[in-house]
Amino acid sequence: MRGSPAGPRLLLRRLREAMAEPIGAQERLDKIVVLIAANMVAEVCSVYILRADDVLELFATEGLNRSAVHQTTLRVREGLVGLIAAEAIALNLSDARSHPAFAYRPETGEEVYNGFLGVPVLRAGRILGVLVVQNRARRTYSEEEVEALQTTAMVIAEMFAAGGFETIARPGAPLDLRRPMRLHGTVLSDGVGLGYVVLHEPRVVVTDLIGEDVDHELGRLATSLDKLRLSVDDMLARRDVTDGEHRDVLETYRMFARDRGWARKMEDAVRNGLTAEAAVERVQSDTRARMLRSTDPYLRERLHDLDDLANRLLRELIGRPQLDGADKLPKDAIVVARNMGAAELLDYDRDRLRGLVLEEGGPTSHVTIVARALGIPAVGQVAGAVSLVERGDAVIVDGEAGEVHFRPPSDVETAYGEKVRFRARRQAQYRRLRSKPSVTIDGHAVTLQLNAGLLVDMPHLDESAAAGIGLFRTELLFMVASQLPRVNEQVAIYRRVMDAAGDRPVTFRSLDIGGDKILPYLRSVEEENPAMGWRAIRLGLDRPALLRTQIRALLHAAAGRDLRLMFPMVASTAEFRAARSLVDRELRHLKRHAHRIPDYVRLGVMLEVPSLLFEIDELLGEVDFVSVGSNDLFQFMTATDRGNIRVADRYDPLSLPFLRALKRIVDRAALAHVPVSLCGEIAGRPLSAMALIALGYRTISMSPSAIGPVKEMLRALDVGRLRARLLPRLEPGRWNGDLRAFLAEYAAEHDIPV
Length: 754
What we know:
alpha/beta, 8-stranded parallel beta barrel
């Protein structure tokens, strides 16, 4: 049969029959190696499975000594089998014993065999084991035979994934497929979540592996490839970008989609007996395994593009173009995704959602903001998360340490269960503080407010006993909408926010869109540095109709009440004056048409652009209030992209330059008798909030979950004593130590919970 195209298809049919028989895992595997050896006209066929301790264990063999099964092991990179596992490549040798990597195992009796062909057993690019055939004769296996064995290895991979082999392994480590894994990432949202994996973009599980009609499967593949290429062309046609990096990326995407080598590999897999879907999965798994081991950063970065193309092609083949993960949520779900938008997270049932794991995502992304608002523990920058798990795997998300545990061992699960119970007890303590005043030991009252941006945030006001909303991000309402909200729709939403707040103040921030905050229904502009580009107040002043519409809606919604509105990314007093003139114009319009207007309109700015520090006295002479946006102010002052994991932790907000800047703002505002607050991540961390209070800030705004810890801290704080120790250290030439370490030591000395 060797050399005949019917050989692989016949073998796959026989494998399918063997897999369907009601027999044990070891018996099934023993039968499979016999079938492979007969079909390949090989004297030996062996299957090695990778264990969690990076050891390959011989699980079945036809031709070698049967007594070696479950006794013979090789470490990854040890011997020819270990080399295949390490490199994820096929190895085709006519004289195996002369290869420098050959490792002799006397118990197997393989020293008489020369011809050797080994292929990795791969699933989603992950090594599960190695499949080997051998012959006494010195021979090189044909390309068709290599392809046939790789196709067979794919079928075996699916069998491994189905389970049942852990019970027959050599006592010791579990199989690698079920290996517990601890991965490190970036904390996005505080908290701890235990549950089970739900893939946001579920991999298409290929269940029909073996094709019966080659021509039919080739036709299906060709048709779906054509549809895929047309969809990529449409992506390019919808962009009004003629050049630049964005266009280059899309052109690369199109190049991959039209690559004949990619298509030819899939066609060859179909000719060897696979369905079109199985062929796509096989080729992509091989490609992923090789690219993950590449040292070329460009190739590794393109892996997501190829994964996405393969997934799109699979969806074309099965006729399911739309994602459907959100409507099939189990209890205690942990969503795992490469990345996702804020609106996509809101599609999930909050009552069942326990955590979020992202391969990408940064602390300032909108999905992060929504996760915090919903109180969902989240960890981002978890490399390879999607390919390392299956739906239903147990997972722990540690939003305190920035760790994710996939398939955790029982002792880890027990420890985290206790951690969750401890957090629940702490939260109960915080709830008991709800009725207590936010006043320091020496009598300084501190107003604790919430950051919000969605209607789902509003119940947190009562739950946390916050004094109001210090920052309402209006752009989130626009980002989760399918089209630009009309004036009446905006009025209704803003009114519901103010109704929910009651007599507590709400400070609305005007639209901060542009840059990385793209509204899908508005035309976007490609920029080299979007964080410092055409966004926020700059976009609003250049496109005044959009800003005026929002201002009019806010004025209508606040009729008969006080309205607090601040403008983001203001870089000069002149920009604030221009924005204020738009508000004045809308007020005149409402009065002229006899509409009811707010009782009082207070206008302020988000101080987040460093240039305002050098114009602060002029600014304070014109605004009603100032709110320090510490996230962007710190980013711009230190020239660090907080979403870039290489530099995000390079500089500390509790550093001398930044604390000096914050003190200058609060001091100048006090002299001008202008209210000043601070909203940003540092407000929600007890240690840094302690520093802010010592600097003179008496209104700070944070996430709902931070209210309790910060209140507990400040009620144990003597502000005067800390100021006497901290402020001299901010004077030029007085001190050059670590301010964070000093603050932590001070808190420990005075029993301040931070």
